[in-house]
Amino acid sequence: MPTPHASTPGAPARHSRRTGRRVASATALLAAGALLLAGCASGGDSGGGDASKNIVNLVTPAQPESMDPQISTDSIMGEIASPIFETLVTTDENLQVTPMLAESFEANADNTEYTFVLREGVTFQDGSEMDADDVVASMNRWLRVSVAAVDAFAGAEWTKVDDRTVKLTTASPSFLHLLYLAQVGTAFPAVLPLEVVEKVGDAPIQDVEDIIGTGPYTFAEWEADQKIVIEKWDDYQSVDAPSSGRSGAKDAQLDQVVFNFVADASTRTLGLQSGQYDATTELPFDSLDQFQDDPNLVLDTYMVGPINLVYSDDPSSPFSNVINRQAINTGIDRDPIMLAAVGSEDLYDLVHHNMTLGQKAIWDTEVGKADFNQADVDAAKEMLAEGGYDGSPVVVLANKDYSEAYNAAVVVVEQLKAMGVEATLDAYEWGAFSEKYRENRDEWDLVVFPFGTELDPTQTIGFLPTRAGYFDGPELQALLAKFRSAPTQADASAIYDEMQEWIEETRPMTRIGDAHNVYAANKDLELPWFEGRFVWWNAHWK
Amino acid sequence: MLRFILRRLLSLIPVLFVVSVVIFSLIHLTPGDPARRILGEKASDEAVAALHASMGLDAPVVIQYLNWVGGVFTGNLGNSYFLNKTVVEAIGDNAVPTIQLAIIAMLVAVLLAVPFGTIAARYRDGAIDRSVTAFTLIGMTVPSFVLALAMMLIFGLSLRWLPISGYINPFEDLGEGLRTLLMPGIALGAITAALIARTTRASVLDVLNADYIDAARSRGVTEKRLLFAHTIKNASLPVLTIVGLSLGSLVTGAAVTETIFNIPGLGQLLINAISRRDYPVIQGVILFITLIYLLTNLLIDLLYGIVDPRVRVGKAR
């Protein structure tokens, strides 16, 4: 019989101590068991870093919104699609246009007709043989749906000559034609099976079963917002020529490439450091120092695109006066803005014209060089007074999804204040930002906008007439039309000077600088990089 | 009882209706365009308009709403613009990891918090009590993403015991699946554990101080029996409330944890859908989350009656 006692509820008793110990032991056992399970199973290292499986795990922030190679303008789409789809021509390591699905090609005397003889024995990944019908249907679809082709190939048409020969007829000669046919970045001229073209028409490809190309890798799996897997295609018929750039032989050695989509930057960097992921196309800007001395990774930089200030063309904005636009261009100091944007002097360039420094060999001009980056605040103040700026509020629109553009915008606002401009920052996520930028031009005065890198100046988003800003009007349209029909690169370069002069005079935008990204790969990977992309078909574990 | 459940279920309809109107209005008033997202910034207005038409976005908003609501009544929540599947399929696929995560978080929380909360109350003001109080304070004040990153650094990067991110279904591979869910589960369950531990401690203390406990003790009832037979059950009502409400929040509020650990759950689905303006998915997920929350509350009300006959539904006068 238990002895009654008058202990307080808190008073220890032998049996309750035992009970407490039992509960604590059970809990500790549970925790230990969980960690033991983790520890025991840790050898598998799920998700990546496993050379023995001949798989590479790449990590990148977001999945493409569409995997239609002819429509999507997501750069990650190009990264995933370029080993799956092929084009009639491509570029070698010297950026010369060379045949890929074509065996040969030639142009007529006035460069308005191009004839392509197709390679024999090329099959699609569904087993069907590629012929002229597939190519003509694909290329005509590309002319209709690709934002680049719509302008550069206006009035062009593809026709079948015979089963192995196709012809492109253009409205006018242009040095751009072959350049565009050879690009595999975004909205590129991928050759698709006729059946797919007939099925999807001009709408984006949605069904993953329709992602069928002729390349060395096939589309294997798409787990929404998690990963896309491409697999080596054993029946790929390689070109019998040395590999160079994107041309020549393609020797797929990796069994799989897994593109993992991880939104959180810390998770991506930790995953890369832990070996869960083997490569990335995009290290967060602020993690360069963290990775620079990592012995397990090889890093390099590449051009990601310019950051620009675009002025609103709404009549109520103080920047409807060109003098005020020129004032801001005179007053801003680009280095601090770019440092804030990308965090390191190694990760940006300042370029005085509209194309990137990496394209200097093709697109260069002296126009605007002398007055570039004056950072003269006093002169800016005088010009603003001359332009009639009365201290009214100025809204700087920015988006939060691109950290480099957002960080740049923060410094731009401070510099505007130093010029006596009553500037405030108005930042949104991409969807809202994009609509405000396009449609609500009376709600902002300046926008900090990250542009992409483009093959030719006419494709930079600022030159699209429907965009906000002073990019429309007959003078610019005439220049663009003249540029697009320039028969040679030299002719185009001369017109590029004129385009730059137009920018200097009209000042629809102010170029701040070009941001670079950092790509990284496991040191044990042989992973070639060419023109902003990994070359997956020649990659292998060492 | 049955009438009570039916009445409660019927009362959900107006709530769901209001939620559907608010959500539909909000997302259509928010700037952003799914067609522009698919076609890219440089797409022509004509191409965007054509895609709008094929998505049904060119119809008046009221018609779009009626079409959607009409579908909801037949179980058709529409198709995702981006995922190449129906909204019901998307919710079904993404609910699995979220529910698994919530269960693990709740298991971690309950198995740690209830025993430690009880022990802390039993040995009030002792070393264990002070330790439990300190840990609960930390658990409640440290944001889950900080805890997540700290665990990633320790268990993912330094010790390499657990994967930094990703998800494997435990039903396909139990060991690997649990490894992917352990850190997120702890990160998600920490606040809940702290809340439950504090509630358990307070509730057990209340009961231990009750007169009937003193009376039982004076009758010679053992401390073990006092605790397990007379205290815990009577102290469990507030704990049950917290567990129920927390389970709802764990299922519906795991977005941050899912994003950090890259778990393809409902939270991640919703965040991505909002970012892409995938209207049918946003509407469907929020409606589903609302329903889960309401049903969880109903379930908790019913459980009250089982635990405590005094509040049994249909018995009260």
From TrEMBL, chain A:
Q: Which Gene3D superfamilies match?
A: Dipeptide-binding Protein, Domain 1, Dipeptide-binding Protein, Domain 3, Periplasmic binding protein-like II
The identity of this protein, by name, is ABC transporter substrate-binding protein
Q: Write out the entry's keywords from A to Z.
A: Signal
Region (Disordered) spans which residues?
A: 1-22
Looking at the keywords, is S-adenosyl-L-methionine present? no
Q: Which residues form the Solute-binding protein family domain?
A: 96-458
UniProt-listed PANTHER family = D,D-DIPEPTIDE-BINDING PERIPLASMIC PROTEIN DDPA-RELATED, PERIPLASMIC BINDING COMPONENT OF ABC TRANSPORTER
- According to the record, the segments passing through the membrane are none
A Pfam family annotated for this chain is SBP_bac_5
The answer to keyword Transmembrane applying to this record is no
Automatic annotation (TrEMBL), chain B:
InterPro entries per the record? BPD_transp_1_N, MetI-like, MetI-like_sf
Q: Which organism is it from?
A: Leucobacter rhizosphaerae
Tell me which family the UniProt entry assigns to this protein.
Belongs to the binding-protein-dependent transport system permease family.
Keyword hit for Membrane: yes
PROSITE patterns noted in UniProt: ABC_TM1
Principal subcellular localization? membrane
Positions in coiled-coil regions: none
Q: Which UniProt keywords apply?
A: Cell membrane, Membrane, Transmembrane, Transmembrane helix, Transport
Locate the transmembrane regions by residue number.
9-29, 99-120, 132-157, 177-197, 235-261, 281-307
Where located?
A: Cell membrane
Identify this protein by name: ABC transporter permease
For membrane topology, the record states: Multi-pass membrane protein
